[in-house]
Amino acid sequence: MNKILIIEDDLEINALLADFLKEKGYAVHCQYDGLHVLDFLNKEKIDLIILDIMLPYRSGDIILSDVRKKFTIPVIIISAKETTQNKIDLLRLGADDYITKPFDMEEVLARIESNLRRVQFQNSQTECLQYNNLTLNLEKNTAFLNGIELSLTAKEFGILELLMKYPDKVFSKSNLFQSVWDTEYIAEDNTLNVHISNLRNKLKAICSDTEFIDTVWGIGYRLHKAKD
């Protein structure tokens, strides 16, 4: 299920969009100002953002600029500003699409579907993920470290794939478990920790002097980030 983040300070418009998209099968998260967008994106995997420009505290163009410094998530602007120059400026700043208020819900849906199809196509063209000497072939579901094939379970492969797709993201245990197992996370369940431990052991058996997965205490896991 694709996850959409709506950032719109108008409560009625926000609710209308959220209800409509939920009916269409999307998971929806709502925010009403620009204060905590980046913090949220660092914790939650979002597939598309619907962003208003006129927001309290931090305007939409500043949020867009900040998002583009770290994420490639598709961003659709919704704004009452109709000038061509304004649209050009925002598209050059990194917006993927622009919808003028008032808008038709079916048009919003069509734009969302179009952008998600584009991302899906681009991702399908990227068959391999690379991190140092570790390579994942997403088409063949194979993993090689220093040219040696790793014998991974499907869940171990899924964990590595997620971490390597989002190398700057810290995944909570709940988020990582739900993404890979596609089921609800139970805090007392040690399944994820066991899989992480087994995965680390398999990687260290081939490359003992290199870290691949960092534990972020109190939060979860991320791809290893070398210290500056």
TrEMBL record:
Pfam families per record: Response_reg, Trans_reg_C
Keyword Plastid (UniProt): no
Keyword DNA-binding: yes
Segments forming a coiled coil: none
GO molecular function: phosphorelay response regulator activity; transcription cis-regulatory region binding
GO cellular component: cytosol; protein-DNA complex
Sequence ranges assigned to domain OmpR/PhoB-type in this UniProt record: 126-225
Keyword field: DNA-binding, Phosphoprotein, Transcription, Transcription regulation, Two-component regulatory system
Modified residues annotated as 4-aspartylphosphate in this record: D52
Chain ranges of the Response regulatory domain: 3-116
An individual GO BP term: regulation of DNA-templated transcription
DNA-binding region: 126-225
InterPro entries: CheY-like_superfamily, OmpR/PhoB-type_DNA-bd, Sig_transdc_resp-reg_receiver, WalR-like, WH-like_DNA-bd_sf
Role this protein plays: May play the central regulatory role in sporulation. It may be an element of the effector pathway responsible for the activation of sporulation genes in response to nutritional stress. Spo0A may act in concert with spo0H (a sigma factor) to control the expression of some genes that are critical to the sporulation process.
Name of the molecule in the record: Stage 0 sporulation protein A homolog
